[in-house]
Amino acid sequence: MVAAPIAGRRRPAIRAGPAAVRGSAGTRDQRTGTVILAVRVAVATLWTAPDRPRPIDAPAIAVPSDIRSWTAALDTEHRLDLHGRVETQLLLGETAVVRRTDGDWSLVLARSQPSSKDAGGYPGWLPTSQLAAVPPPGQRAVVSAASTDLRDRPGGPVCIADVSMGTSLGLAGSDDHGYTPVRVPGRDEPAWIAGSDVCAVDSAHKATGQQVVETASMFLGLQYLWGGMCSLALDCSGLVHLVYRRLGVDLPRDAHDQATRGTEVPVDDARPGDLYFFAEPGRAIHHVGIAAADGRMLHAPESGRGIELVPMPDPRRRTLVAARRYVG
Q1: DSSP letters of 282-302?
Q2: 159 annotated active-site
Q3: CA 239, 81, 40: angle at the middle one, nearest 5?
Q4: Has 199 been annotated as catalytic?
């Protein structure tokens, strides 16, 4: 992926390697020699190029990022205009391979979001300031609440707000007054999260289709956002990826890639938690939804609408091409 020139000013030279990432030594992959860093903000948005964010997108590229304020300011026109700008989003602590840097930006591969775009992970650009060194390895827990805050100490002031469901954080010690200490990229001291908001990652064989539907239902009404992959912003495949990630099942990021995993089932035999895939005749898959009881579907439909649980409308049914199962 090559960034388009920035109009009106000279573009800084592209540099490769760890020296280009200021303030973060990074972890070097012993096999490939590539540098791996971790997201240090609650949600980092990946862009198609460094010059694609608009002035209204400033909260999304700040440190700390403020996805709540950003999405609140976006009307339907602004949301539609994210096509060709936003690729996906990474959650706090998610690791990324740094391909190269360009001024204050880095081209990375999101390792936890498999994609046919690149074997190393989902590609995109983000501000280098949103990255930091990867914390030491250890036992991990996943955020199970739709959204939560991290605090400087148990019950203390918030240090990172709006941490999304599906965020995986390393444990840093024993609970204290109902709070769990966790390791956070860019911080020397642990941050604290309400113990009721995290849990052990469920393995794939323990997850059920009903859990998929119940987890996805937590986001009913949330407005669709192109490229969204967090509890404050979701597109159709982002909803699927996030829900399954929360339940310990690794799926690709995009719908057409998700359709290559799991076990195909007849569409009329789909059970709650299975996925429906949609495509126009002769075209690639363009939409995914979660099967629910009584012939309904839970999905993120399009910009200007919220996540909904509805009987499958006839226009959708006419483009239904496959159903697949990923959990028991």
Answers
A1: TS---EEEEE-GGGEEEE---
A2: no
A3: 55
A4: no
Which domain does 84 fall in, by range?
Answer: 14-132
Blockwise average pLDDT, block size 10, the chain, 328 residues: 29 36 56 85 99 99 99 98 99 98 98 97 99 94 97 98 98 96 97 95 73 98 99 99 96 98 97 98 97 97 97 94 96
Our measurement of the distance from residue 164's CA atom to the centroid of its chain's CA atoms, rounded to an integer in Å, reads 9
pLDDT at 21: 47
Catalytic-labelled residue, pool 159, 205, 286, 287? 287
Residues 51 and 115 reside in one and the same domain:
yes
Distance CA 46, CA 107 (A): 9
Residues 119 and 221 in one domain: no
Which among 177, 230, 256, 299 is annotated as catalytic? 299
Cα separation, 89 vs 165, in Å, equals: 13
Active-site residue among 159, 230, 236, 241?
236
State the pTM of this model: 0.90
Q: Give the CATH number of the domain where residue 217 resides.
A: 3.90.1720.10
In DSSP terms, 10 is beta-bridged to: none
Residue 118: strand, helix, or coil:
strand
**Cis bond upstream, residue 64 (ω within 30):** yes
What are residue 180's DSSP bridge partners?
193
Contact 17, 40 (CB under 8 A): no
Is residue 287 domain-shared with residue 242, that is, in the same domain? yes
Are the C-beta atoms of residues 271 and 262 closer than 8 Å to each other? Answer: no
The full DSSP string for 137-188 is P--EEEE-SSEEEEESSTT--EEEEEEETT-EEEE-S--BTTEEEEE-TT-S
At residue 247, the 3 state secondary structure works out as: coil
Torsion angle in degrees (nearest 10) through CA of 325, 203, 235, 74:
160
Does residue 299 carry a catalytic annotation? yes
